[in-house]
Amino acid sequence: MECKVLILDEPTSSLDDHEVEKLFTLMRQLKEKGVAIVFVTHFLEQVYAVCDRITVLRNGKLVGEYPIEELPRVRLVAAMMGKDFDDLAAVKTEQAKDFSKEPLFIDAKGLSHKGKIKPFDLQIHKGEVVGLTGLLGSGRSELARVIYGADKNQTGELKVAGKEVKINAPIDAMNLGMGLLPDDRKAEGIIGDLSVRENIILALQAKRGIFKLLPMSKQIEIADKYIELLQIKTANRETLIKQLSGGNQQR
């Protein structure tokens, strides 16, 4: 590779562990040949595995630059979040709560979508956080899409709050109080040629229907509220969302 500086922008976001290690091996080989590398990532463990120096950015501003050996992980998290180290150090791990006695909100049995995910069972209680993990292609996203109706369920049954339901499309899930934040932001999470305001109110307008348009004053109120709440960096609410940075689009 004939270059002096190599910029890698989130290169590991869609790689499994084995592929990540192959990439790191190549990066180390290039480093030995004198190639300078800028490695952009959200994965902290990968930063410590392959980097010599860390530059922390927050909301488009430089927070600081640190030699890797001088920045423990907890201090890195504090810098990224804009929190004092003492505040994070004071956080105590809460004892795990037993949710088995809480009302069952999602009760899925034998749901599947041919060619994407085999039949699965899943239970989620009120107030419970259930983590799904696995390598790329293991079916994590597909499972969520089947429950939400983005991919039509073909077998089994689904109960929501104790009642058997049929979710044929995302609007059915929305009417049951569900929301989905997709992993592919640009393809499924936003409409690039619409404004920030239009993207913010899009799901709410879809739920109301095309014949019950939100008044412009209400759209502006909602958009301004979430621009401030989520600290979205935009020139104004009418800026096309495709003109925002990736992080601000995701917010």
Automatic annotation (TrEMBL):
It holds the Pfam family ABC_tran. The keyword Nucleus does not apply. InterPro entries: ABC_carbohydrate_import_ATPase, ABC_transporter-like_ATP-bd, P-loop_NTPase. Keywords: ATP-binding, Nucleotide-binding, Repeat, Transport. It comes from Roseburia intestinalis L1-82. Transmembrane segments: none annotated. The keyword Nucleotide-binding applies. Residues 118-251 form the ABC transporter domain. This is ABC transporter domain-containing protein. GO terms for molecular function: ATP binding; ATP hydrolysis activity. Gene3D superfamilies: P-loop containing nucleotide triphosphate hydrolases.
